[in-house]
Amino acid sequence: MGAPVAYDPAEMRAAQAEAARLRAACDMLKGAPKSSRDDPNFVESFFSASRLHFIGMWKTRLESLMLSGVIGGPTPNPGPGAQVIFHVDLDCFFASVAESEHPLFSGKPLAVCHSNNAKGTAEISSANYEARKYGIRAGMFMAGAKQLCPDLIVVPYNFERYQEVSEQAYKIMMACSACVQPLSCDEAFLDVTGLGDPFQLASRLRADIQAATGCTASVGIGHNLLIARLATKRAKPDGQCHIQEAEAASAMLSLELSDLPGVGWATSKKLASLGLQSVADLQAWSKARLQAELGDKTGAALWDASRGIDTRRVAPPAVRKSLGAEVNWGVRFDSPQDATRFLGKLAEEVWTRMGAAGVQGRSLTLKLKKRKEGVYNPVKFMGHGICDNLSRTHTFHRPAHSAATIHRAACDMLTSLHVPHADIRGIGLGMSRGL
Ligand code: DCP
Ligand code: CA
Ligand code: CA
């Protein structure tokens, strides 16, 4: 019997975000499976909802590409001067891929969406800059977009191609600098300190990405991460922009408070209650006053951010030590065999992810959400409702070598937890390297 695993808060938040994304996947698949009860392939459907699968997997794939060491760019050379940071972001990524594949579309308003129904509530994933002239934005419903631009060209997703373009762009960035921090499938920070003239480096990087992928990228250049990211906003589309250190504080004035790092919903509300509505308001306050109102840490961080001060470093990925897959939505079992089968699919998903990430695992954790006594119907349809969280960990003698091995160990742990199949509302498997 293993000890329960402690999860750190950042990991928990990541897991919650993942669960939210997966819920969105189910929304996207409306008309498709509603729960594990209706569909024996629920787990595959759940994880292969391609958009979500892609978004969930990009990081794993890119990190293993970076850690494989196949491409070794020059190591930054810190001197006495300031750092030079690039923030690279592909322009209207999914839409650009569509344009590069169909030159006939080029220069016309175009959006990527899984449905072209002009009355529909399908959400736009990416709009090219031509479409943006009509006010079309990502996240907008198709019906609204078609009203703004009846001639809008709507193209479906092409995940294989996004994957290829993303990897090509990353390889070019990795050849530019050994210090690359992936932020998303189309976006990264690079430390290029001491590697040459920043403007020329950025031009070459953008030209190389365009030549290899047919898609344009923009580059923001700054002496820290915050300023580089801000510069990208000015550079877009298909451009580059260097904000100098001396301009940093005044450049920050163009941002909303909610654009500052660490300013979420709660901090925004607090700032509003203090009468602080803009970056300029924030700059007018002393550090001591901000700290008195918001606490030492938050106060100091906001004082810095409002002036464009940022001490973070570009952080390349560290070797991944654990990964997992969990489903806390739509889980309803009619028999113990149902639960066993479900675990089999989950084991396959974990095994696939381990392969993609190049992770070896000796320590397997089963997490269960058990319906709380007396709670029958979760408020949210097919959600997990109020649950007790249970977990068990199994340590293999040597790294798990197949989905079947993982499945067997998971089933043993499930049995030992003695949870009636009908009470299971969520189920997850996590694999780590163990000791
Ligand atoms: N994406 C999505 N749904 C969203 C936001 C983004 O599917 N609500 C996908 C499609 C985007 C890709 O992620 O093309 C990258 O997101 P960005 O925020 O970088 O947006 P774009 O690359 O589309 O445009 P921009 O030129 O503003 O970066
Ligand atoms: Ca982008
Ligand atoms: Ca992006």
From TrEMBL:
Keywords, alphabetical: DNA damage, DNA repair, DNA synthesis, DNA-binding, Magnesium, Metal-binding, Nucleotidyltransferase, Nucleus, Transferase
GO biological process, one term: error-prone translesion synthesis
Pfam families: IMS (PF00817), IMS_C (PF11799), IMS_HHH_1 (PF21999)
InterPro entries linked to this entry: DNA/RNA_pol_sf, DNA_pol_Y-fam_lit_finger_sf, DNA_pol_Y-fam_little_finger, IMS_HHH_1, Rev_trsase/Diguanyl_cyclase, UmuC
Keyword Transferase: yes
Compartments where located: Nucleus
PANTHER family recorded: DNA REPAIR PROTEIN REV1 (PTHR45990)
Protein name: DNA repair protein REV1
Annotated source species: Auxenochlorella protothecoides (Green microalga)
